[in-house]
Amino acid sequence: MTAPKQHKQRYYYIFWSIATLSVVVGQINIISTYNRLSDNLEKVLIEQTRKEVVKTAEQSREMYNPR
User: Fold this and answer.
1) Which tens digits make up the pLDDT trace of 30-44?
2) 3-state helix/strand/coil string of 3-65
3) d(Cα 19, Cα 50) in Å, to the nearest integer?
């Protein structure tokens, strides 16, 4: 009678091992995607800020240095 219990335990551990690995792989994928998204957002914000600073500097220069 002990053989069926051991057989059941083996499938139990296999199932939970696969489930755990699936969760860990999913979390790694989410972290990787979040990092890429964060990097891209940072680049976009820096570029927009740079354009605004240049635009403001040009307007300021035109205001104080009339031609």
Assistant:
1) 999 999 999 999 999
2) HHHHHHHHHHHHHHHHHHHHHHHHHHHHHHHHHHHHHHHHHHHHHHHHHHHHHHHHHHHHHHC
3) 47
Q: What is the pTM of this model?
A: 0.60
Side chain identity, residue 5: K
Between CA 9 and CA 42 the distance in angstroms is 49
- Cα Rg for the chain, rounded, in angstroms? 29
Distance (Å, whole) CA 50 – CA 44:
10
Sign of the torsion angle spanned by Cα atoms 41, 45, 50, 55: positive
